Structures are given as structure tokens and as C-alpha cells.
TrEMBL record:
Organism of origin: Sesamum indicum
Transmembrane regions: none
Keywords tagged on the record: Oxidoreductase
GO molecular function, one term: oxidoreductase activity
Protein name (Swiss-Prot/TrEMBL): Short-chain dehydrogenase TIC 32, chloroplastic isoform X2
Amino acid sequence: MPTSHQLTAIVTGATSGIGAETARVLAKRGVRVVIPARNLRKAEKVKESIQRESPEAEIIILEIDLSSFASIQRCCSEFLSLGLPLHILINNAGKYSQKLEFSEDKIELTFATNYLGHFLLTEMLLGKMVETASQSCIQGRIVNVSSVIHNWVDRKHFCFSKLLSPKSYNGTRAYAQSKLANILHAKELARQLKARKANVTINAVHPGIVKTGIIRDYRGFITDSLYFMASKLLKSTSQGAATTCYVALSPQTAGLSGKYFADCNESRCSALANEEAEARKLWKQTRALIHRRFLVPVGQNVKGSSTN
């Protein structure tokens, strides 16, 4: 995007790994970067590291727990009170849990963090993004960081009520389901934004298999020697962040929406991830859940339009 120095971006999960690298690259390009984080100490260290490399970089830190609806509300309210524009939203944060855990809202933790948290964050900030795009004439861009592992999900295991509170739990399956939901979210929101003629796009990306904390969480299932050999084939965090930054900033992706990218190219996602009916159903179920919690007046993010 040619006007990087006028841009403001929010990057979740930017205290380590791909998110931290994404924040660094954006800041180096002159983008004001907002880092919502659960661990404020780690966020400060990332800010210091970025500003050592780019002394003029503007980094803002906000507190958030993406597994908590109440925390997301507080964070969004705090951001909106700053009066800043919002051009880019990168839903990058990821959670992988080997054992069944629940959020404070009594929802399975991986699904609550990876999908529901980002859904609500996007809902609450979408109005600001549409407004910013209209006033600045700069296209807004939302990027959902997904994973190729979404291909592992079959239809019989993708049931909304079971995703919220599974009777049997498998960490890898839960993670894959949340990443499928990230793509479906991008597909349906892209459809809605196009129908509204809003100047905001949303796409999903697969960063590659990267040496991050999530990969290290798998080590209990494989031997150290196998992990060592596999790690040689993994991408670096710089390589992993490349596709996210490409979709967020490149002129080549202007106007593209509802797509799935890997290795800085448009790619194919699973047949289930491509189903418009499945994407719309998941959207409605998610919106109904949020509405029941009385957290956000869904359907009013763009004046005069609905999310049907």
C-alpha cells in the first residue's frame, strides 16, 4: 500500500513468533502498530526491540485476553477512545491446548481464543474500519491467520455446539477446527462487505509450518530426535510472516477478498472451507451466541446495513 506512513494496524498475538515479526515489518514500513496483549511485559519487550531497529516507530500496547468476551470489549472500547483510524486488522493470535480447558465464558479454550475471540474483535472494530476506509479512500484489510491443518476437519466433526463444549477432546482436532472456522469467517464476512460495497477486504492465510510456541507444544507427542529432524524443514518466523504482510500491504492483493493465501500466492483451501452455506451457518450461530451474551449489538457495524 503506497501510503504506509498514514496507516494504523492492530496485530493480535504479537508478543512472540509470527505476530512479533509481523509487527516489526509493519513498523519498519512506517505503520502505526497496536499490540493487544495478555502479557504486557512481553509486549513491552517487543515494543523496545522494534524501536531499537526503527526509532520512529509508533507502538501502542493494549491489554486483552482473547478468550474472554469481557476483556475483548474493554480492549476495543479503549482503542476506540483513542480516536485513531484503523486500516489493518491482523487476527494472528493462536492457542493450542493438549488437554481440555475452558475459558471464563465456559467455552473450549482453543475455539474461544482462535475463532470466537477474533470474531468478536472484528465485529467490534469493523465499523471503525469501514469509516476509516471511507474517509481516507484507503482500502481496509483484515487478515485471518489460519493453517493448512484446516484440511483435516471433516463435516461430521464440525458441529457448533460440540465445538463450544466437546464431550471428547483431541487438541490437534480442536486446533484444526478453529482454523477452519477462521477461513469460513473470512469467506462470509467478505461476502457481506461486498454486498454493502464497503471498501474493506478480508482474507485468510496459511503462514506455513513455523518454529513457534505452538509447534513446541507438540513435543510431548514425538521424540526429541524426530522433532530435531522435522525442525530443519520448518519455516523461520520471517518466512512465516511474509504471507501475512503480503496480504496486508501489497498492491497485488488490493480488491481481493474471501481468498486463502499460502507462500504469498492465492491457494486452495478444503472443500468444506469453500462452502458458502457452511460459512453463513457458522456466522449466524456465532452471532446468535454473542447476542445471547448481550455483549455487542451485532448487525449495526455499517450504518443502514445489516449482517444478514
